[in-house]
Each structure stands twice: as structure tokens, then as C-alpha cells.
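Q: What structure does this chain adopt?
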Amino acid sequence: MNFDDKYYHGLGECSKYNYKDIILELKTLELILKSKAILAKSLQYTQKSDNRVGFNGMNYISLCKGVMGRNIHYSAYKMFIEASISLILDSKLPNIIKPTVLSKHANQYSLATLKFYSKDDNRERYTDFQDEVQVKYKIDLSNVVAIGFPLDFYFAKAKNKINIAEGYLNLKELLKKYKYNWPIYDINNEVPLNDELVLTKIVKYQKGK
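A:
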């Protein structure tokens, strides 16, 4: 699979690794699977209002375009994909909007300025990431081609490696529950994942303790 021409939607914000993050991301994934679509915040029954300020506002969905952000210090890939479960979307995804990239990072703007740039009625969309694109309202799950699971990143950060295997197996069970058979990849090294590979890493770790 060519990873460079795909779109990515991360289910969490990448920060310090915490196993609780995987649990929250799986809960978010289940809401998406139930809805049969990725929905903008205004269409989510769990988030009718949101006090956070993001360039996607309430009616737009933020995506990462390609994997060039791996080599950019400040990127959508680094912030939302590198250390998060993600949905990998087809390169022919329709209705893509390319925002204007602002000259400053979000934390350099006042709250009032950020709210202006994120307004849903703006004719033009904005972002502070070179690799961000947006889609309005909804993305049908027929556009999903795979799932990203950053196994090696998790494994490097987690104190309890068994939790990583549990997270992977819970992801597989969730996809099975909703009858989706998307392949799962370690998003950062583009390796397809399977039970044997994941469990082999756990066994090697246990032997080395």
C-alpha cells in the first residue's frame, strides 16, 4: 500500500504515552463505527458544543495528508497520527478542502484570533499545519482502507508492554463486532500487523526481563 497518497484521521492527540489513551481512542472508534461515518463535532450526539478552539471548527473534519509530516517538527502527523490509533482513508477521498497555512503556530495567536480563523462560515479554511486538509460534515466509512496502530511507538513508551497487546487485541475485537475487516498497520514503519508479530514482541520482552 502506498502510504504517501492516503489521508489519515487520528483518534487522539499525541502526547506522552498513556495506556488510558488507547482506551479512549477505542471508545472514539466505536462511536465512529456505530455512526458508520466520521462526523464533524456538530453532528456528533456526544459533542453538540465544544469549548476548544480548533481550525476545523464545529462543521469540518481535520485530516492529515500523506506522511511527509514525519519529517516536519510541527505537523498534523506528529500531533495526531504518530502516537494514535488512526483511520487510513483512500487517496481518492472526495470533497477535500486545502486550507490556507498560516505563518504562525496556533499557540502564538490570541484566543479571539483563533476563533476568527476557525469560524464555520468563513469562505476560506485555515490551519497552522502544512499537512492538514479538511472535509465538511461527514466522511463515509466506505472510504477507509486500513487502520493505523503505532505498535513500535507504544512499545517504546509503555512501562507495561502487556497493555499494548491488549489494546491491539481489543481493536481487533471491536472491528470484528462491527463487521469491518480492514488491515491494521504499524503507522510509523508501514508494517502490516498480525497476532503473531504482536505476541512475538511481548514474548521477547518477557524473556529479556
